[in-house]
Amino acid sequence: MKKYRHFPREYKQRIVNEIESGLRSRSEVIKDEKIASSLIDRWRKQIQEGTMVNHPSARERRLEKELDRYKKKVGELTLENDLLKKSKSTQYA
Asked: What 8-state DSSP symbol labels residue 83?
């Protein structure tokens, strides 16, 4: 099974900027960074079109799910608490 590498947005932008500014040649980047020429083309196109996005890591997705569960639980407990307060106040009225 092929393992894919993930590159941060800042890294992609730096690589494209280095090539476009002439700081490093395209062949140097391909050799040094061990990335495909087509990948550089894709990054350049994404930057020009403004479609480059950071995809959340597996850890970030897991934490988002956990946060959603906690928010749901807080909502349920808030409703339950409000109902208990309401029933308590009508009980003494």
From this structure: H
